[in-house]
Amino acid sequence: MQPHPIHSTQHFIPSNTMDLPVLFLLLSLSFSFPLSSLSLDTIHEGTSLSIEKSEDILISPDGVFSAGFYSVGDNAYCYAIWFNKPSHGKIQTVIWMANRDHPVNGRSSKLSLLKTGNLILSDAGKFTVWATNTQSLSSVHLYLYNTGNLVLQNMEGLTLWESFDFPTDTLLPQQLLTRNTRLVSSRSQTNYSSGFYKLFFDNNNLLRLLYDSLEDSSLYWPDPWIVRYTDNNSRIAVLDTFGNFSSSDDFTFMAADYGPKLHRRLRIDYDGDVRLYSWDEEGQTWLVSWQAIQSPCKIYGICGANSFCSYIVGSDRKCSCLPGYKMKNLTDWSDGCEPEFHLSCNGNESGFLMLPRVQFIGYDYEKWSNSTFDECKNLCLQRCDCKAFHHTFFREDRYSSCYAKMRLRNGYRSPDFQGGLYLRLPESNLFSYANSVQDFTLVCSSNRTRNKRSQPENGIVKFMLWFACGVGGLEIICIFLIWCLLSRTQQASSVDKQGYLVAVTGFRRFTYAELKKATKDFNEEIGRGAGGIVYKGVLPDNRVAAIKCINESNQGEGEFLAEVSIIGRINHINLIEMWGYCTEGKHRLLVYEYMENGTLAQNLSSHALDWKKRFDIALGTAKGLAYLHEECLEWVLHCDVKPHNILLDSNYQPKVADFGLSKLQNRNLEKASFSRIRGTRGYMAPEWVFNLPITSKVDVYSYGIVVLEMVTGKGPTKGVHAIDSGGETEPKRLVAWVREKRNEAAAMTSWLEEIVDPILESSYEKGKMETLITVALQCVEEEKDARPSMGQVAEMLLRQEDDSHSDDHGINL
């Protein structure tokens, strides 16, 4: 797209042939227009935009974006690009700033395009605050595109500089995030200078969120203890105009209002969360259509040191100082809190205040295992820099742990955390601080006082009074219940009208009529299970979808909403993606992406799955399950891993499906319990049968069975016929049969040929096959603690694949 030419005011020179009335008319017209760049999208070299002229702005041809001087304080300005339509009728939305950390004076400051090709921003003192540092022998011009990109080009059309290459806190559609760029949050909602949160590609080519202050630096998304993998050495991510975000590290997500003709922006907000915003033309405001972190208190540094974060459902987070501490800066919680007391190094002068359900992450200078509470307390008192400790006792394992804290950062209060923090305070002030502990409890209580009557009351009068109060109270309760019902109905209809359930789910809501039309009245059935029937359909935007009708008898409303809320927050290349849902009356449906090659179960007996595809399916499935167990914002167990729930796309890459039917787990997985047994016969771990605690290891067991089934081509429940020592055939279970053949390897080296699926016809890599079988057998150990985690499984298979690649590319001498 070529820049639009600027129509500048011309100077007219009278000639002998020019009629004086015509000259007078032209001169009048020329002076009737301002001598500024009002409503222009281009400026040429030798032009300056003055900060004192509010009309000196660039406007994109479609009128959506403007570039000019933006007020960031008293007599302080930054050169910025903003979205022209004010949100809620108040302020414009800034999407880029040139000098966010060095505002210029409100007088005599200018943006100048020099004849050398350099674009500079100069302050009142005539010194350069910001520059593009560009040069050109030919003339140049500055142009604001409809995309919101401010571009400096020469006459040959060569781009010398563009704002898209230097983002601040916002990424616009078609703007690339690369190895050389990063998004940096603002300091606060009103302070546009650089803040502490950054979105960038790390040295492992993975997209990360980093908290980076003057005192602390921590990766906080994805969880730093989660191992992620990528074979892609490039570092690039982009948001398209439809609301689809894709990154070279296989991280993708889709906006809740997926579709064209919407203004969008991806922003790292001042609170450290990354959100995708979509412009709502009707409401004239920005709506959140996706966000990276659902639990705001899990963001590092959000409340500063010596404070903790509490999440208020339906509202926002709340920062609070620890007892005995006060805010450093009354206007900024990121500065944290400071002690109001002096703590002596003498342990005899210190005591501990227990703060229930409060947890601080990191800064454990020491961990003491199997320590009693008194031992843990004494060990902390022996250290002058010990400010608090966590002590946890696991009754199931009769095991305890003690974490001593040298710094109190990243604190939050959560109902899921069963322990508490033991805060070290001066013994002399302990009693006064103890009064504030009641504010830390999660159960509301009230004090009731009884007032004695000074004079006796008449019994009949008292009875009539209570009767009247009772009737009146009943009427008030009935009116209140009716009002609540009407209020909720109106709120629900409002949500339906907007088509958003963004904060919880992140995908759109369909009507039953839309899905009925998409499936041609539920004509083409592509799958059936205990949970319901799956149909193929084509959505209004021409996307092919798998639409699952939930059986009313098999799943109640609570389970349906649980599945919706879980899947809406989960994005991974090896997990099936949900696009939306429908709930109208008795109809409950889920809309998934459609997988061209069906399920793994449908492909096992065909020749479509060669050795490479089978190994890739095993690896991809392990990655998907590891993400559910270890990397999700909320941990999820699948509980029904089987070939029917592993779908294959057009390239036979696996995507795990139906994980939304599992129970959402908190961090204390050992205490998890399920109301009924889940899973499929043959794939179920022994824990289900013996009513043992259910952990992520039930999925590990089922995964091992699936891998053995892929390797051998034999189902887990049909049995395998083997010949015993007497020459008779006897049925054996798949796991026992594979173990037996492997144990005979010392005497018989052809054990792989005996168990591998004949369809493969010896076309497989023996080393990788042995590793795959070994890992699978570890997964199906009877004792759950002997099984690896899914993260460890993925790591072992990846290591084997990397070793194989190294051998393939080795040097032949």
UniProtKB/TrEMBL annotation:
Reactions accelerated catalytically? L-threonyl-[protein] + ATP = O-phospho-L-threonyl-[protein] + ADP + H(+); L-seryl-[protein] + ATP = O-phospho-L-seryl-[protein] + ADP + H(+)
Binding-site residues for ATP, renumbered to this chain: K548
Q: What is its EC number?
A: 2.7.11.1
Please name the GO terms of the biological process aspect recorded for this protein, alphabetically: recognition of pollen
The record ties this protein, via PROSITE patterns, to: BULB_LECTIN, PAN, PROTEIN_KINASE_ATP, PROTEIN_KINASE_DOM, PROTEIN_KINASE_ST
Q: Does the keyword Mitochondrion apply?
A: no
Molecular function as annotated in GO:
ATP binding; protein serine kinase activity; protein serine/threonine kinase activity
Keywords, ordered alphabetically: ATP-binding, Disulfide bond, EGF-like domain, Glycoprotein, Kinase, Membrane, Nucleotide-binding, Receptor, Serine/threonine-protein kinase, Signal, Transferase, Transmembrane, Transmembrane helix
Domain Protein kinase residues, every copy? 520-798
The record's section on InterPro entries has:
Bulb-type_lectin_dom (IPR001480), Bulb-type_lectin_dom_sf (IPR036426), Kinase-like_dom_sf (IPR011009), Pan_app (IPR003609), Prot_kinase_dom (IPR000719), Protein_kinase_ATP_BS (IPR017441), S_locus_glycoprot_dom (IPR000858), Ser/Thr_kinase_AS (IPR008271)
As recorded in UniProt, coiled-coil segments are none
Q: Where are the transmembrane segments?
A: 463-486
* Residues in Apple domain copies: 345-426
> What residue stretches are annotated with the Bulb-type lectin domain?
40-165
Identify which top EC class this enzyme belongs to: transferase
The principal localisation class reads membrane
Pfam families of this UniProt entry?
Answer: B_lectin, PAN_2, Pkinase, S_locus_glycop
Q: Where is the signal peptide?
A: 1-32
Tell me how this protein sits in the membrane. Single-pass type I membrane protein
GO cellular component terms, semicolon-separated: membrane
Q: Which domain of life is it from?
A: Eukaryota
Q: Localized where? A: Membrane
Q: Which family does it belong to?
A: Belongs to the protein kinase superfamily. Ser/Thr protein kinase family.
Can you name this protein? Receptor-like serine/threonine-protein kinase
**Species assigned in the record:** Juglans regia
